[in-house]
Every structure is written in structure tokens, then in C-alpha cells.
Amino acid sequence: MPQLEIVFIFYPWETIGGAITRTVNLIKALSKHYRINFLILPPRRLTVLASLMKMLSDLERKNLIKVYIIPTKISKLRVEEFDFNMFAKTLVSIYKFLPKRSQKPKYRFVLYSRHPLYLMFASSLAGKPLGIPSITEIHHHIYAGYRNAVLRFLLKILEWLTLNISTLIVVNSEVFYNELRNGALKLHPEKLVLIRNCINLEELTYLTKKETNLGLTEKFDGDLIGFVGSLKPEEDIITLLKAFKTVQQSRSNTYLVIIGGGRAVELYKQMVKILGLEERVIFLGEKSHEEAIKIMKKLKIFIALRGRNPRTEMAAPLKIVEALALGIPVIATDLPSIREVVQDAAILVPPGDYKAVAEAILNLLNEPALRQALVEKGIRRIVNLNCENAILPLLQALGVIANASQKETELIKEDPSMQIHKTTTFC
Fold first, then answer.
1. Which residues are bridge partners to 134 per DSSP?
2. How far is CA 367 from CA 38, 61, 249, 329, 346, in A?
3. CA distance 233 to 145
4. What pLDDT digit, counting tens, does each position of 75-134 carry?
5. What region does 63 belong to: left with phi over 0, alpha with psi -120 to 50, or beta?
6. Residue-wise over 253-272: b if at least 16 C-beta within 10 A, else e?
7. CA gap 113, 26 in Å, rounded
8. How far apart are CA 281 and CA 289, in angstroms?
9. Distance of CA 47 to CAs 12, 53, 70, 261, 405, Å?
């Protein structure tokens, strides 16, 4: 029977965030079942690539994955989701990689990609003439974040083409699953695979037990409240800062720790000065996944606030799942995607309501029993969000592909002329 070999094509964007962590978590879980090749289009910032390589180093050492760096230059025509130069480069790289490998008949390849859109489209398109099934991971409509009507239309068409020619589509929320199934696209449920944001419990436990000297609890003699994530507009940092200003009026021995980078950092630092919170708000900048986990473990409360928009309603940040697993009480924005993840294991507040956020923080700081109740609910909830359990629907779908590949191989052995029709198997 041909063994499946999964080829991940990945672009790590420009920040060390949830996209990298989720992808690595999935690869680690899948590597226990399949051979993994990881093709990386390097980002502009080499520190991001170095962080990704460090997260994969253990798997490489155990020979569970093979990593390939695709040499390329970012085009000046680059849009956030589509770059014509990068699309062509990705397509060529896939075609260069696969034929050499496909000469080994005992392996059957599956292409796996996620946003940006040019990478998803190139991957799904490359598989067609080669008869190779493709898996596209998408968390929300790509075009949803663009105001330019022409650009939105073009991205919408490309997204539609990508999803229709993909063999399987992986989503990370039931909200978006239902949107793709029942919305305008009307995709068949057998084509959709739901894999919620998940964590590797053993690895998370190991990271928190490693010796560390962060200096946070030694330097700051109060309660630490924290946020972790990319500092972009959809992360509602303004509401968080206004809420923390209110908290300071009652609990002056609290500190707000903000971990993450982004173009809006200076804006938020200016707002901190205006609010007179320079001594109480600590911007730690961008940290590796390992460093972020160690800092999170020091927090008394984890905050995950997001503005309401089509993207945030469809996808929840991974850091919420990690906070639950670490036993940290969570306050989060009441959005469909977040509600689906936390259920009753967090305090949910209306979008943009800083007074509700401040009240929730004070309640948790003043009531240890409430904090403990949330921690216990979070630990129970996280059992279903372990990656070993989360990938089961994908393993089942890959099993169907493997069975189809075996039947195809048997037919070709009986009649070699059927080799030219193999592209129809996964259409």
C-alpha cells in the first residue's frame, strides 16, 4: 500500500505568532502518522525564520520531517494576500520538488497549504495536473479585510477557485465551517475538515518546567495581567488600556504585561503615556513561543480582546487555548469563534466595553474562588483541545485518500494505460 507523504508549503509572515505555533503543533501531531516535508518561503525578518526552525529542530533531529528553504525575493507588487511573483515562485518550486520524489512509487503525496492566498492557490493548482490531492487551510474569508472593491472582487474570485479545486479544506472553527457549508459557496461537508486550535500538552508542560529567569515577579511586586499577540488593529488593545486605567483606581498594585510586536506599538505606547500608566504597563516586545509561554505562566489573568469584524468572528486566537492549558483565568471578547473555544471556561465581555473588562478583572483579582473555578473549567475544556484528539477528523480524511491511492495503484498494475487518467481520482 502506498504511504502518504504530506508536503506542507508555508510562509511564516513577519511575526512570531499563532500561525506558526498552530502549524508546528499540527506537524508534530501528524508526524506520528505520516512522513512530512516542510517547504518554507522565508519571510523578510530572519528572526522569524530562526524561531520557526528552532521549533522544528526536535522533529528534524528525530528524522520525522525534512525541511526545505525555498530561496526567493519578495516582489514589490506584494499585497498582503496575493503576490504574483511569489505565486509563480511557489508553483515552480512545487513542480521542481515533486517529480524527483514521485519516482518512488511507494509514496503518495498530499499538498498542504494555508494563507497567504497566493500560496494556497499555487498549491491547489499544482496538484491538479499531477493528480496529487491538495489540502487548503483557511480560517476566514481572505477578502473580508479589504475595503477596495476591485481588490475584494479579485481576492473573492481567487478564494473561490482555490476552495473549489482543493481536495480538502481545513477550518479551525465551527462558525466558519457552517459558513462554507451553508453560505454562498455551499461546499460539500465531506470536503470540510474541522480542526480547532489545539496544543501539545506534554510539550507545554515541559516548557513551563524548564529553568528560566524572566525577572518579572522579582521586579514587579504586584499582580500581573497579560496580553499575548500581534499588535494589529483587530486586537483591541485600546479597550484593554482603558480598562486597565479603571482597574488602577482600585488596585494600584497591578501591572499589565503586553507581549507582541507590530506597526501599532508606538501608538499604544503614546496612549499609555496619555493615560499616565508608564510605570504600570510593560511592553516586552516580540518573544519566541517558548519565552511567551514562560511569561504567561507568571500571569494571574490572561486577557484576549478583539474587535468585531468578519475575520475575528470566524477565528479565535491560539493563545486562549494555551492560557486555559496553563491554568490561567481568561477574560475574552464575546465573539462566536471565541465562545466556541472557551464555552464556560472564561469570562466573556461585549466587544469594546472597557467598563465590563475592568469589572471582570477586579472580580477575578478580588475573588480567589472565582479564579479557581475558571481554572478548573479550563483544564476540563482543554482535554478536547489536545492536538492528538483534534487531528482525528483529518486522519480519517487522509485514510480515505490513502485507500483511494491503493485502489488506483492496483488498477494501474492491471492496466498500465490507466496511468494517464489518474488525475480524475481526487477531482
1. 111
2. 47, 46, 18, 12, 15
3. 11
4. 444 455 677 777 888 888 888 887 655 555 445 789 999 988 888 999 999 888 878 899
5. left
6. ebbbbbbbbbebbeebeebb
7. 12
8. 21
9. 11, 10, 17, 13, 40
Mean per-residue pLDDT for 22-51?
Answer: 87
Count the Cβ atoms, other than its own, within 10 Å of residue 130: 17
DSSP 3-state of 96: helix
61-70, 243-252, 309-318, range with greatest mean pLDDT: 243-252
What are 208's three cell numbers?
513551563
Q: What is the CA radius of gyration of the chain?
A: 23
pLDDT at residue 299 in the model = 94
Look at residues 131, 146, 125, 81 and name the one whose alpha carbon lies nearest to residue 310: 146
pLDDT single digits (tens) 244-290:
999 999 998 999 999 988 778 899 999 999 999 999 999 999 888 88
pLDDT score of 424 more than 60: no
Beta bridge partners of 153: none
Average pLDDT over residues 216-225: 73
Residues in the chain: 427
Task: Provide the sign of the torsion angle of the four alpha carbons 354, 359, 365, 371, taken in this order.
Answer: negative
Cα–Cα distance measured from residue 336 to residue 356, given in angstroms and rounded to the nearest whole number: 18
Residue 407 has pLDDT above 70, yes or no: no
pLDDT at 324 over 90: yes
413 C-beta neighbours (distance < 10 Å), count: 9
Residue of 207, 354, 245, 366 lying closest to 301 (CA atoms): 366
Question: 254-259 and 281-285 as β-strands: parallel, antiparallel, unpaired?
Answer: parallel
List C-alpha distances in Å: 283 to 72, 227, 259, 276, 351: 33, 10, 6, 15, 23
* Residue 220 confidence (pLDDT): 67
Between CA 283 and CA 259 the distance in angstroms is 6
User: Which residue, among 246, 199, 228, 223, has the nearest Cα to 305 in the 3D structure?
Assistant: 228
DSSP 8-state assignment for residue 124: H
Task: Give the burial string for 193-212 (b: 16+ CB within 10 Å, else e).
Answer: bbbbbbbbeebbeebbeeeb
pLDDT at res. 417:
46
Containing 346, the helix (H) or strand (E) segment is none
